[in-house]
Amino acid sequence: MKSERGLWGSKLGFILxxxxxxxxxGNVWRFPYITGENGGAAFVLIYLVFVLLLGLPYxxxxxxxxxxxxxxxxxxxxxxxxxxxxxxxxxLGIITSIGILSFYGVIAGWTFGYIFxxxxxxxxxxxxxxxxxxxxxxxxxxxxxxxxxxxxxxxxKGVESGIEKWxxxxxxxxLVLFIILIxxxxxxxxxSQGIEFYLYPDFSKVGFKTIIAALGQAFFSLSLGLGLMIxxxxxxxxxTNIFTSALYIVLFDAxxxxxxxxxxxxxxxxxxENPASGPSLVFIVLPKLFSQMPAGNFVGAAFFILLSxxxxxxxxxxxxxPVSYLVDEKNVSRKxxxxxxxxxxxxxxxxxxxxxxxxxxxxNFGWLPSSLTSxxxxxxxxxxxxxxxxxxxxxxxxxxxxxxxxxxxxxAEIMISGDNFSKFKGTWIFLIKYLLPVIVLVILVSIxxxxxxx
Length: 454
Ligand code: PHE
Hints:
76% helix
């Protein structure tokens, strides 16, 4: 039954593929706009604390469960605690992946479209350029469809030949381009105001929403809470050090997000844009920046090519969650099921694609209160699946790993080929069993209090 599974070709391949899942639009598109909406540096600081204190130990817990059981989230939970309701937590992760992939694919489609826009549009983009682009249904749906199809083709080919090969070559290239852009953006006049906004915290700007947003962003950006890292962990050999690997992945991910901010905020102040422009922020600021650079058309195209690939390594991992579940548990053929799942995701994402001015009903959807997120369907999906369900899933999985499977068992799995973990084991068990569940629970409950939904 497990014949269609594989193992990572090398340790580096695994770290790069997991980083490839983590690094994506979450770092480059979502992190800057959420930072902008939440007042800048103070948000960044809280986000970083959550990443290190909660994200890192929790990622190790998901890896441990995956490697110990060699199964997808549902199978892994069933193996540890057979015939129990806990398996629904695994199913929740699968539903959440589909929800996230549906809106994420839409943004990935914009990114892909901007490769061609950067190449062929000349002059400074008009102020309504982006909104005109995203309210054109042919582009919206066409680009989104292309992105989902490319994702499906790669997942169809299986773990090693697909995910690993791409990540190895292209992630490092993205970082190099980032460094060039950081230097360029910070040499622009008035860019230092951006650095101030981004790096000098003003805690008077911190409200409850800031804390919820920082928590959601920390888990979203690290691809946690859906059991995805359980699936990835199931492909790691016993000789891989889980602690060191997780540390690398978390650091890479945080660095890429921080770098993206070092481009966007200086550029934004230099170009006189508003930091709180929401989801369209990077699509407004960056093309303007490129239009001023020498050979800007090519720099812009290169940037959006690499960003599309970063997004692709994330969408691949998102699609891998439902697919590997169905392959393992329902014994279906990978080759067939990939296409069914991809088609289903595509349909779920259509309202998001049409919610940026094309269809009024989806543009002004607003089921969730405006104190939490904007009214358009895409933002609502992003909050509900990308912040709320994802963090809720992380809470449940953390309780499962810490209390049902047992933090001691998980710790023992991490100790295999992980000698350097022994000094941190006690702290890690405390974080997983007590601190993480309490903090996440308090924050989730407060969402209801703050908004008066209860
Ligand atoms: N972490 C990815 C990003 O930052 C998004 C993602 C979330 C991918 C959850 C998989 C699972 O772009």
